[in-house]
Amino acid sequence: MAGKVAKNKGTGKGKPKADKLWQGRFEGGMASSMERLSISLAFDRKLFREDIEGSMAHAHGLKAAGVLTAPELKKMLAGLEKVKADLEAGKDLFLPSDEDIHMAVERILTERIGALGKKLHTGRSRNDQVATDLKLYVRRRAADLETAITGLQQAIYRKALAYRNELMPGYTHVQQAQPIYIAHYLLSFFWALERDKTRMRNAAASAGQMPLGSGALAGSAFPYQRELVAARLGFPELSPNSIDATAHRDFALEFLGACAVLGALLSGYAEDFVLWSTQEFMYIELGEAYTSGSSMMPQKKNPDSMELIRGKSGRLLGNFTRLFTVMKGLPHAYDRDLQEDKEPVFDSVETLDLCLTVMSEAMDSLRFRMDSISKKMHPGMLATDLADYLVEKGIAFRDAHHIVGRMVGQAEAAGVSFLELPESAWATIPDGKAFRKRLTFAYSAERRNIAGGTGSKSVTSQLAQAKRLLKI
Ligand code: ARG
Fold first, then answer.
1. Which of 162, 256, 276, 296 has the highest CB neighbour number within 10 Å of its CB?
2. What digits encode the pLDDT tens for the residues 27-83?
3. What are the sequence ranges of the domains in the chain?
4. Any residues with Cβ below 6 Å from ligand 1, and which?
5. Fold designation for 34-122
6. Distance from residue 127's CA to the centre of ligand 1 (Å)
7. Any idea which residues carry the catalytic annotation?
8. Alpha-carbon distance values, 396 to 390, 403, 429, 436 (Å)
């Protein structure tokens, strides 16, 4: 209940009570309501690896600074290693009174190796510790996401290769615009993902300055070699300023921004696939395992995988917005508000990891229904090619556009396509009879072999470039 004082007993049933590690100057305990607000272990336990590896590197730093002897370092490292192994094995070592993962690890260590455990926090504050943990986490997960993005690119590449000779309508404004190769459409996804990988790498690089040695905000008073600690943790740089290191979370924002941008990309392709699996389009069929039925309507096979991926984009943008709002106007240096930095990061990582897996698998399962695609391709998509042809015959593009526009209008009124208009309507077109025969969807696509265009030569070279990037 609000206002009730917990007297440090925690809320655990049957678990031993433990004093808080910062208890020194306090006489009473925290109100139980305040404990509920304060305790972050429920979520920051996800950082246990980063926290323990950070502590091990810090211990090396303390040895180099003369704070720990060689035997003490050895004992401390063995203790930390054991705590990590136990947590990895899923052992529940935590107490309800543990405030956060940093306190929990230190308490467990001290209980196991005795007084020596109390030396670990020398020259360190949870402020530089938590910033280090989160940077390590972001660097690792950004690399994992990059791998997952590559997995999706591989699935896209396979599908593009399979459909490299097949045409479909290309759309603008969801209106049939110009014919394109299916591979060209699919590769648009591939190339965008390549930039998402760059954004992941950039976010990891922004998290590349190691905070340890910054202490609470002013820098550690113990001259341990930060370079040595950073090298052990794989940080390429040291933070150049202890306030910057402990107060700022721009690296996390950048990472969440990259996640939100990727989420928006996935949602756009998911939307295409939802639309294209409708009875109205019938362009694609998703593997059954990535759809679901309706509890009421037996005929339904809903593209839920794509709808869920589309929906998750809201959550990914929300995570970015959530941390941005926390950061805005925060006084320097550390404030407890910063504890709010972790959950959005964890959530974006887990959400994207799952979305990328499902998108890759669904991509592999997807089949283009060439029969209905070719039936739905409208000859109107060739109007631009007729105008281009007139330009080649010496007519200014604006005039050509007008001539073709009139033919299209005439055709619409007659309920046919402009290719089906009577000979008389084609009379103004030089060599109109012969050209009408040449004017096919493949002709249109093949005229676009400019680098980046949909022509088959361009698509083949895109596929070759994609293959080189994937190293397959
Ligand atoms: N749990 C805290 C966080 O996530 C750790 C740092 C606490 N520091 C402090 N000065 N109270 O930010």
1. 256
2. 778 899 999 999 999 999 999 999 999 999 999 999 999 999 999 999 999 999 999
3. 34-122, 127-222+236-375, 378-470
4. 40, 44, 100, 126-127, 130, 334, 336, 338-339
5. Fumarase C; Chain B, domain 1 (1.10.275)
6. 6
7. 173, 294
8. 8, 11, 14, 20
